[in-house]
Amino acid sequence: MNHFEVLCRDPGGPARRGRIKTAHGDIETPCFMPVGTRATVKGLTPKQLEEEIGAQVVLANTYHLFLRPGHELIEKLGGVHRFMGWSGPVLTDSGGFQVFSLSSLRKISEDGVTFQSPIDGLRHHLTPELSIAVQEALGADIIMAFDECTPYPADRKQVRESLELTARWAARSKAARQRSDNLLFGIVQGGVYPEMRSLSLEKTVALDFDGYALGGLSVGEGPAAMHEVVSEFAPRLPEDRPRYLMGVGTPEDLLAAVASGIDMFDCVMPTRNARNGMYFTSRGPLSIKQARFREDPEPIDGACNCYTCRNFSRAYLRHLFRSGEILSSVLATLHNLYFYHRLMAGMGRAIEAGRLAGFKDDFLRSYQAGEL
């Protein structure tokens, strides 16, 4: 059965609307996946994610769930969906990026990565085979091949060695697969060097994965370099498979990437920024901690219909943040994820209407105009 269908294409470029079929339901693309690192999106219940946000799919983190509480326990308790009370699709990353971020606490070899747990100091050895086994034990609908996230900056020799290792690990990841009820995505690395990206793409596509991701971006290279890589290589990924840009990003990043043909995104930005008092609005980011909002009776964004904007003033939201109340994070997270999902839905409608370029221009004109 074909697990991905292109529903329509934008006449002005490679952007498309699609549908991914998974064991726990369909995912309409383009889509944004809220990050549920430890099998929870911080501050929200699954019911809020589904009913208030309209989330279709949640990302969970293989590395963190491997360390605590352990994939064996989650499997024993019925899998990650039952464990976290979420009935929709779940995507799990391979753990490669988290191991990459450990820097001095890890050692990379041909076999895999040995690292020291930041929780209890114990040493673990994560291989492509174990990464796939963990993800399949969790019961995720979409799983990722184990990769080495190429650091930035890195010279061509370092990038070549890294992408070659990722390609060998990708082949081992596919060979280790045991279940047929999930989709396995390969990851294209290669840094910011076009010839390296081309080589990684060729090696990854040759393995015939169910979907493909662009990895190793938003790691310090800057927006212009990232957009250049995405615009060149997203359209070169197979047309009949989902395309996933990992760990990205700002609203501007999402617009540019969808226009380049990307279907799927995840990023901690809307939830992490929410906990720091930053709201995304139709007129750009707004920091609620500012004194000018102390007596402001207006909602965060009059153009937004989320639960937070329908019910609470900026004055109240500033009070919650300044008081350190948990509700501050809840309401800000609700708003920011609603904003991201509304943006994705708007792009989907614009692609259907054949006017994505106009939608993008209109959005950016408002978003970059300054705070409300």
Characterization of the model:
By secondary structure, the chain is an alpha/beta fold. It has 2 domains: 4-267, Queuine tRNA-ribosyltransferase-like (TIM Barrel), CATH 3.20.20.105; 276-367, no CATH class. Helices cover 42% and strands 18% of the residues. The chain contains 15 helices and 17 strands. The chain has helices at residues 46-53, 62-67, 71-76, 80-84, 96-101, 128-138, 156-176, 194-205, 223-233, 251-259, 269-275, 307-311, 314-323, 326-353, 356-367; strands spanning 4-9, 16-22, 25-29, 31-33, 35-36, 58-60, 90-92, 106-108, 113-116, 123-126, 142-144, 183-188, 211-214, 243-245, 264-266, 278-281, 284-287. A 9-stranded parallel beta sheet has the order 4-15-14-13-12-11-7-6-5. Strands 1-2-3 form a 3-stranded antiparallel beta sheet. β9 and β10 form a beta hairpin. The mean pLDDT is 96.
Name the features.
372 residues; alpha/beta; TIM Barrel; three-stranded antiparallel beta sheet; 17 strands; 42% helix; 18% strand
Q: How is the secondary structure organized here?
A:
Blueprint: E1 4-9, E2 16-22, E3 25-29, E4 31-33, E5 35-36, H1 46-53, E6 58-60, H2 62-67, H3 71-76, H4 80-84, E7 90-92, H5 96-101, E8 106-108, E9 113-116, E10 123-126, H6 128-138, E11 142-144, H7 156-176, E12 183-188, H8 194-205, E13 211-214, H9 223-233, E14 243-245, H10 251-259, E15 264-266, H11 269-275, E16 278-281, E17 284-287, H12 307-311, H13 314-323, H14 326-353, H15 356-367
Parallel strand pairs: 4-15, 5-6, 6-7, 7-11, 11-12, 12-13, 13-14, 14-15
Antiparallel strand pairs: 1-2, 2-3, 8-9, 9-10, 16-17
Helix pairs in contact: 1-14, 6-7, 7-8, 9-10, 10-14, 10-15, 11-14, 13-14, 14-15
